[in-house]
Amino acid sequence: MLKRVLRSIGWLVGAGAADHFATRNEFKDLGARVARIERLLETLAEHSAGQVEQAQAQRFLQEKTCAELAYLNGLMRVVSTDIVNASAGRPILGAKTNTFSQNYEDAILAAIFERVGAGQKRFLEIGVGDGTENNTRLLLELGWRGAWVECDPAAVAAIKHRLADYLADGRLILIEEAITAETVEEVVGRCGLSGEIDFLSLDIDMNTSHVWRAMALRARVACLEYNASFPPEIEFEVAYNPSSAWEGSSYFGASLLSLDKIGREKGMALVGCDLMGINAFFVRQDLADAHFPGPHSAVAHYQPPRYALAGSRGHPRAAGRFARANG
Questions:
Q1: β 268-273/279-284 pair status
Q2: CA distances, 191 to each of 121, 186, 225 (Å)
Q3: What is the number of other CB atoms lying within 10 angstroms of the CB of residue 11?
Q4: What is the pLDDT of residues 276-296, one digit of tens each?
Q5: Collapsed DSSP state (helix, strand, coil) of residue 222
Q6: Is the peptide bond before 304 cis (omega within 30 degrees of 0)?
Q7: Integer angstrom CA distances of residue 237 from 49, 170, 207, 305, 310
Q8: Phi, psi at residue 85, to the nearest 5°?
Q9: pTM of the predicted model, to two decimals?
Q10: Looking at domain 91-310, which of 3.40.50.620, 3.10.129.10, 3.65.10.10, 3.40.50.150 is its CATH number?
Q11: Coil vs helix vs strand at 221
């Protein structure tokens, strides 16, 4: 049964995946894991016809099977990322780890800033959650300073509790606000930011493109959520409604091409997307030309929606200032 899993992995990376797998040590491990899971399932099937006293053994086998499947899921994610990099030449996808981010943003941003430099280490993130999992928490721990904007009162309260020392020493400014195209400039002013910052992260589900277009604040690097349901040749933006809220459907935000066009108007180039088809990464045009091979286009960098790969990974996130941080 699970051998079909190997054949189905191809949809993640396109034609030629099987040949690449055969040359990788990861594939040997993957095959061994699949064989082990199949043996466990066969044993489980035999025990399922047994007596009640075998229930404990069955539970043990079920737990082992679930553990093996979880490992297999993670291994597939790692190997598929490597294949995409090798076949498509998208080096920012090579990094695959999270410290405080959800979809490898921490590692991707580390790769980007390693090339373009950290600048003055100033950031703005709009849509940060409760502070335990977002795109700039690691930067904050690495000595950056900036502002977070969040509209959820419970999340804001959690940030005030968990990151009180950063707020007290002025490294972090926290604004509780639901951002709209009409209010973004006023909110940015309250954050004490102007001119050009080093990193902008914008993830507000519905009106991402409208708010970004309305911002005068410039950034050397930006990360924005895009709607991968639309092919890279199609322009799409939700109709602007400042009070709209995402309902969990494919109707949200903007297509990659639409964000690419806004980025070009702001003098920024698209340099890549994460493997899951969630985030697009932009770099100031002159820096992109110097450090990232072209073409800098939606067609070149589009990743389809692979939201199933964005499941929870690793240890639970926790707050706490780093004892030593170099960044």
A1: antiparallel
A2: 15, 9, 22
A3: 11
A4: 899 999 999 999 999 998 899
A5: strand
A6: no
A7: 55, 36, 8, 17, 24
A8: -60, -45
A9: 0.73
A10: 3.40.50.150
A11: strand
